[in-house]
């Protein structure tokens, strides 16, 4: 028995024993049809972006396929992840169209950050890449540079990182995309973050609890996250839990978390299915926000989410050496790993890349054709150029710390003094400072921070719709994810925790540190772990995150 | 607005907007009535155990309340967590009765390990504590020692640890109880682990994904976990997510995870409610196991789980200084923090402790009355004396490593050689070695380990019911939790992972290390991170856990 033998591509989940009544929980409506122009433009956008993404993984020359692919056209070392790219591009294309159509302010956060080719291709297509990096201009030379140097020491890396325009989340360690998205929309009432969560990533603990984050989002003061769970069925080498759950299991689970669930899976009519789902979701978000902002908040609002089923590596090679590629784990990374030296694989590559018909998509100058441009928003709305990601960090208005001093020789808890200081910081900064705590405010003697504000737990009738500055959720992963999203979009976050438990999120801190580099000394009056700025091209920008570590003795007596 | 003002004890969740049809998903049946003898004995057991647990937190003398409590009777420093104890004791009492009635092999794993008083009191009552620690004998002296020294340097600690009889899970960092429970039952077909998960703990990421663990449990070869989600509504200082979810939200969520959900919340008739739920759950477990073991496995079996709603600190003081205690976060730790120096609090303590009527529960010699003993199983079945926890580690039958060598000067991947070695280890140890991987077997070049076995993912038709030795789930937390449960019950686990991502679970490793101390050098032929034995009283016992770290370069190219 050599592992498992899967006898067909993209196997469907086997049915569960859940009763049929559960089907009534699924969000159902008739798809609306996009007009022909939009349909055609969207599908050409996707062909162009998929072409560029795939070419980035393989080609070092002949990047527009002006002739048959030769051995020398192929990179000596093939690196990059194809499998997730078609799904990420599908979403990107529809976000573009939606932003244009409805004039939205959006960010796009991608869990499977190893799908950098999808993002970089889209950013090149819309011109954001060229804006920050002149060498990737929207012409033949720029495209040649992008494709030929990708994943080499001379080019852009294989994972999304701080250098990726529009990005607030490092690719690498999976699990935090969703919590970071929620942090980013807090106190950004007009922002919608669309977050793609991979079905592999969704198995991680941090993601599993992040779905609850809607319970800490007050729609009167904050924006919205639109989660898309991307079921392409496979991770690196196995099927995924979520890919093996049937629609009944999925709708139960996410309804239980609090969502309305729409499943998008009509592969033959994907544009209409996707667009209808997006339109519905935006409508639901606006309803919830309107109610809260007109003083009639809905208690336990059912936020929308989308579950998207696509074959892994969709539109890539179907089979190789008798193995399925599309719709299998073989498309996770490089679907044709020996394309340089194996004739059969090189021919498969030729066939695959030419199937996108690049000659119909790019002009002679190497730009994309006007029809594709029709789907792309104006500069200020482009996913790669959002001010939330680049605008400078605005320092909080800090009180004079001396008023919190005690007389020399007096006995007073240092933590209590810090609590009083934080209280005053909240008073002076009503919408740009937050505190995230894993249920340790009281035991850390910081409860004076609640003197003029409350907790922000929307499912609790006693703190619902009160705009509290404090979130206390027993998940260090959620606290740190919220903090990252909040601070990387320009605000100030505080995360007090026991010394012994901060280690729980130390790898997240490392990812965060890679995304942001030390810059200024910490603010007055508190022990700030990092004051950081990002090396992203664009206007000056820095963020401040403070982690207050409490001493071991305190931690031990209060756990 | 000083935080939130909660105007009543034990507030109920506010209703969600989920449709009524969801109620049909709840498991419903008529409670059966325990006979009067059992009822009375169970409730006396609980009074006795709650009395001892509460006394442990406060008293240093007068431990059987033979006179009114004086200042000197109270410990100088009050340490311990009361809030969770009554719930833990309720479950303990019913497990005892169930084990006796149905002759079951059970372990009890407790998430809120800060509830050590509940466990230690129960272990004293059943005599397991006295068996391992003569100073805690079942008489006046033993009880005096237990109560008066608890949480002091001379006594047992405030958290469950390796010294607690029957324990396989360290109290402290919350989140892993459930995954450890699943690891313990793997390849232990007759074992049932009942696992209490706190509603605070349930907010953690590791717990949130652990509910999926049923999908990696083959009922033909492994035992069962019976999870009890304990909703006492509060954590250290805030309401909990799960406590604020109504029954509709809860049943949807856990039905989606794959469970059948029974809610136990009839506080006025709790014994009948609890016992009926347990009887039902054991019946469901046996049905699933019987089907699988008679060659007709149920695909996607719906394992039972119990949701238990009780007031936090149930049976403790109701109010103090105008604040609710029972049914509020004030009962989390020490409900009467100034009992030593405040007359009102000392009187409240007197009233509270005497409400259990210890004089009816203990004999003059300090043992418990016979009626209570009636509920306790025989020695070999007691929760504090299970052989799985104490029996010696049986070393695996290892192949000669030399046959996996390559000629000096040859080029061969070291990881591939290790994969071939592991394959042979599996062949020679069909039911006592497992490999847990966060979806990195293939990318770590270990897939030869699958030459004679498969993956054990029950929701996947291609690996269902095949007894595979490999679990690949994209959660380092699950892998490490499974490993801990599997190895701490005497078997061998392997956890290969990228160096950069092992840090995700480094605090778990620290907890594990506290539970187990280094003893022997690792086995031949692989790089074992720890070979460990536990300093638990009882027969010799050691376990082996191997973590294979893969080099950074490999990790980077394959993430
Ligand atoms: C925490 C963590 N563990 C393991 C890995 C290694 N890894 C990289 S990609 C991947 C599979 C991801 O699957 P999925 O999220 O479904 O993404 P997609 O299939 O869309 O590529 C894994 C396990 C990782 N990046 N992070
Ligand atoms: C990972 C982690 N974060 C924080 C803590 C600090 N802490 C100790 S007890 C507790 C509350 C636990 O609540 P719950 O699980 O509901 O237990 P119960 O209410 O039954 O005591 C917290 C936050 C911890 N022990 N572990």
From TrEMBL, chains A, B:
Residues 519-559 are annotated as: Disordered. PROSITE patterns: PHOSPHOKETOLASE_1, PHOSPHOKETOLASE_2. Residues 41-393 form the Xylulose 5-phosphate/Fructose 6-phosphate phosphoketolase N-terminal domain. GO terms for biological process: carbohydrate metabolic process. SUPFAM superfamilies: Thiamin diphosphate-binding fold (THDP-binding). One of its GO terms (molecular function) is aldehyde-lyase activity. InterPro entries: THDP-binding, Xul5P/Fru6P_PKetolase, Xul5P/Fru6P_PKetolase_CS, Xul5P/Fru6P_PKetolase_N, Xul5P/Fru6P_PKetolase_ThDP_BS. It comes from the Eukaryota. This is Putative Phosphoketolase. It comes from Aspergillus calidoustus.
């Amino acid at each position: 028995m050599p592992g498992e033998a899967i006898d067909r591509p993209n196997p469907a989940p086997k049915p569960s024993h859940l009763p049929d009544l559960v089907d009534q929980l699924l969000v159902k409506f008739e798809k609306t049809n996009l007009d022909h122009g939009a349909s055609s433009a969207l599908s050409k956008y996707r062909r162009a972006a998929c072409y560029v993404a795939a070419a980035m993984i393989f080609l070092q020359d002949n990047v527009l396929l002006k002739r048959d692919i030769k051995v020398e056209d192929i990179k000596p070392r093939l690196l990059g992840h194809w499998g997730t790219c078609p799904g990420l591009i599908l979403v990107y294309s529809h976000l573009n169209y939606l932003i244009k159509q409805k004039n939205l302010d959006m960010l796009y956060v991608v869990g499977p950050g190893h799908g950098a080719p999808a993002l970089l291709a889209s950013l090149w297509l819309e011109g954001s890449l060229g804006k920050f990096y002149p060498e990737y201009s929207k012409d033949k030379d720029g495209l040649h540079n992008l494709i030929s140097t990708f994943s080499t020491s001379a080019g852009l890396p294989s994972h999304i990182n701080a250098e990726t325009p529009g990005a607030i989340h490092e690719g690498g360690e999976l699990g935090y995309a969703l919590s970071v998205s929620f942090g980013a929309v807090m106190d950004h009432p007009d922002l919608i973050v669309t977050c793609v969560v991979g079905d592999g990533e969704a198995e991680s603990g941090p993601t599993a609890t992040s779905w609850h984050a809607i319970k800490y989002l007050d729609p009167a003061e904050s924006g919205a996250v639109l989660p898309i769970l991307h079921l392409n069925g496979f991770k690196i080498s196995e099927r995924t839990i979520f890919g093996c759950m049937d629609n009944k299991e999925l709708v139960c689970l996410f309804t239980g978390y609090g969502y309305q669930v729409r499943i998008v899976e009509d592969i033959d009519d994907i544009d209409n299915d996707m667009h209808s789902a997006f339109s519905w979701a935006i409508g639901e978000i606006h309803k919830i926000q309107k109610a809260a902002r007109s003083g009639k908040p809905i208690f336990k609002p059912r936020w929308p989410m989308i579950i998207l089923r696509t074959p892994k590596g969709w539109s890539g090679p179907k089979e190789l050496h008798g193995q399925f590629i599309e719709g299998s784990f073989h498309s996770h990374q490089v679907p044709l790993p020996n394309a340089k030296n194996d004739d059969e694989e090189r021919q498969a590559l030729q066939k695959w890349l030419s199937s996108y018909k690049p000659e119909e998509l790019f002009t002679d100058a190497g730009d994309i054709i006007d029809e594709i441009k029709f789907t792309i928003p104006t500069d200020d709305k482009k996913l790669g150029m959002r001010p939330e990601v680049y605008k400078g960090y605005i320092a909080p208005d800090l009180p004079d710390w001396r008023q919190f001093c005690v007389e020399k020789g007096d006995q007073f808890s240092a933590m209590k003094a810090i609590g009083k200081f934080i209280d005053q910081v909240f008073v002076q900064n009503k919408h740009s400072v937050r505190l995230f705590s894993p249920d340790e405010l009281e035991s850390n003697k910081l409860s004076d921070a609640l003197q003029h504000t409350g907790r922000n737990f929307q499912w609790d009738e006693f703190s619902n719709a009160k705009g509290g500055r404090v979130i206390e959720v027993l998940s260090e992963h959620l606290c740190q994810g919220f903090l990252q999203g909040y601070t990387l979009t320009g605000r100030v976050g505080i995360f007090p925790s026991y010394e012994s438990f901060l280690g729980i999120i130390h790898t997240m801190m490392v990812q965060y540190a890679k995304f942001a580099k030390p810059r200024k000394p910490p603010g007055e009056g508190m022990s700030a772990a990092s004051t950081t700025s990002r090396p992203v091209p664009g206007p000056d920008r820095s963020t401040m995150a403070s982690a207050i570590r409490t001493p071991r003795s305190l931690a031990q007596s209060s756990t």
